[in-house]
Amino acid sequence: MNFPQSLTIITFLILILISSSKAADSSGDNPTAYEVLERYYFPIGVLPKGVIGYDLDKPTGKFSAYLNGSCSFALEGSYQLNYKSTINGYISKGKLSKLEGVKVKLFFFWVDIVEVDRSGDDLEFSVGIASAGFSIDNFEECPQCGCGLNCGDGDGIKLRTNRFGVSSSSSS
């Protein structure tokens, strides 16, 4: 076999490897951040629309999700939420812990949401000593930065909730 023919074969093999790796990527080997949430039993609406990327260390559950800038919106007209451009924490089946980058306005103060637990069809959001439970149905769609779930229809969505209160459970 001469040198030009060997080079042609090697080039052909490289092209086959590149195209097969792209096919594997598009077949679901690289899920979106929203698909990762679902794999850990969370609804996609826990994150706003517009996640542009994420990192996940599967053995530890450490993750980072990236938005194209900070994101704020109101839900039900009473809960103001703010997401930083990078959200960090740990994910496991039904639990987001050690969260950084998500805040909720309670009365006149902004407080960090530090944990989200799924219990059956409810999500409990913890800000440390206080927590609130919401039906998982509230998170079937992703809120949009600026307008939340009330983007143009004027009706708004009423959250089924237990208001933030002092939690009787202890978190680790």
TrEMBL record:
PANTHER family: OS05G0362300 PROTEIN, T31J12.3 PROTEIN-RELATED. The lineage of its organism: Eukaryota, Viridiplantae, Streptophyta, Embryophyta, Tracheophyta. It comes from the Eukaryota. Residues 1-23 form the signal peptide. The keyword Magnesium does not apply. InterPro entries: At5g01610-like (IPR036758), DUF538 (IPR007493). This is DUF538 domain-containing protein. Keywords: Signal. The keyword Signal applies. Pfam families: DUF538.
